[in-house]
């Protein structure tokens, strides 16, 4: 696992942008695994800048998102599909037919999970999976206790996750209690993983991910078993490991 220490959120986003742009340009048909949340927003802003400067194109890119809330339509401003359009897809030359965010309103959610897996497989697998981490160590929406063998599945969200994500909703009651998420095994099958971590509230989780026991109680700890992981973390996120 390579750990790149940067000063702050802005520097993390800058470094992540250079990392991702280099790979998009190097691969003939890049298949990206994309994430939502506050963490990658700065990265997406910078990628759009690079696109506007003709330094990167998404014409050959296929993408698969990690997760989606159950019950939110694509048009719902809190859906992850909407997030991706708003923060990235609408601003670059990606073909919407080449992007896939799990459908949180599918009539048969289990079938939707299988379709997401099959589509990734048909695309040749994920080349670069972008990840954030939850304060409880979740990756995607894989909460503590999720089996390492899990593939894309429907999850019940932890109280702590519902609370953390309520900042995006009018009230906590509006936060969906379930989501579709790529599983741990799905994530581990990616050829390369880029994990971004910023802020002191993630420092405990990051310390466990880097130095802790590999256990299903800390989903992110599984990344110790992956051969090609880069972590870009800021000083605050590394504060538990490095001391303040
Ligand atoms: O970047 P944030 O908003 O702190 O979220 C952290 C993680 O939580 C999720 O958004 C799911 O809640 C992940 O997809 C993300 O990586």
UniProtKB/TrEMBL annotation:
InterPro entries linked: Glc/Gal-6P_isomerase, Glucosamine6P_isomerase, Glucosamine6P_isomerase_CS, NagB/RpiA_transferase-like
Pathway: Amino-sugar metabolism; N-acetylneuraminate degradation; D-fructose 6-phosphate from N-acetylneuraminate: step 5/5
CDD domains per UniProt: GlcN6P_deaminase
Catalytic activity: alpha-D-glucosamine 6-phosphate + H2O = beta-D-fructose 6-phosphate + NH4(+)
One term under GO cellular component: cytoplasm
Active site positions, chain numbering: 67 (proton acceptor), 136 (for ring-opening step), 138 (proton acceptor), 143 (for ring-opening step)
An example Gene Ontology molecular-function term: identical protein binding
Keyword Hydrolase: yes
Documented EC number(s): 3.5.99.6
Keyword field: Carbohydrate metabolism, Hydrolase
GO biological process, one term: glucosamine catabolic process
Domain Glucosamine/galactosamine-6-phosphate isomerase, first and last residues per copy: 10-229
Stated family: Belongs to the glucosamine/galactosamine-6-phosphate isomerase family. NagB subfamily.
Function: Catalyzes the reversible isomerization-deamination of glucosamine 6-phosphate (GlcN6P) to form fructose 6-phosphate (Fru6P) and ammonium ion.
Protein name: Glucosamine-6-phosphate deaminase
Source organism per UniProt: Oceanobacillus arenosus
Biological classification of the source: Bacteria, Bacillati, Bacillota, Bacilli, Bacillales
């Amino acid at each position: 696992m390579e750990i790149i220490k940067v000063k702050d959120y802005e520097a993390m986003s800058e470094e992540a942008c250079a990392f991702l742009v280099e790979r998009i340009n190097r691969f003939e048909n890049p298949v990206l695994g994309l994430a939502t949340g506050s963490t990658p927003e700065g990265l997406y802003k910078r990628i759009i800048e690079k696109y506007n400067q003709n330094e990167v194109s998404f014409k050959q890119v296929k993408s698969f998102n990690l997760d989606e809330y159950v019950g939110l339509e694509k048009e719902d401003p809190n859906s992850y599909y909407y997030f991706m359009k708003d923060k990235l897809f609408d601003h670059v030359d990606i073909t919407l037919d080449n992007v896939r965010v799990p459908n949180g309103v599918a009539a048969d959610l289990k079938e939707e999970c299988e379709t997401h897996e099959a589509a990734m497989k048909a695309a040749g697998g994920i080349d670069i999976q972008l990840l954030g981490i939850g304060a409880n160590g979740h990756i995607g929406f894989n909460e503590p206790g999720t089996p390492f063998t899990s593939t894309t599945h429907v999850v019940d969200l932890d109280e702590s996750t519902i609370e953390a994500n309520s900042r995006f909703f009018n009230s906590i009651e509006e936060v969906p209690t379930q989501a579709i998420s790529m599983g741990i095994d799905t994530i581990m099958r990616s050829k390369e993983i880029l994990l971004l971590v910023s802020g002191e509230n993630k420092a405990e989780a990051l310390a466990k991910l880097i130095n802790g026991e590999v256990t299903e109680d800390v989903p992110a700890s599984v990344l110790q078993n992956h051969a090609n992981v880069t972590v870009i973390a800021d000083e605050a996120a590394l504060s538990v490991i490095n001391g303040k």
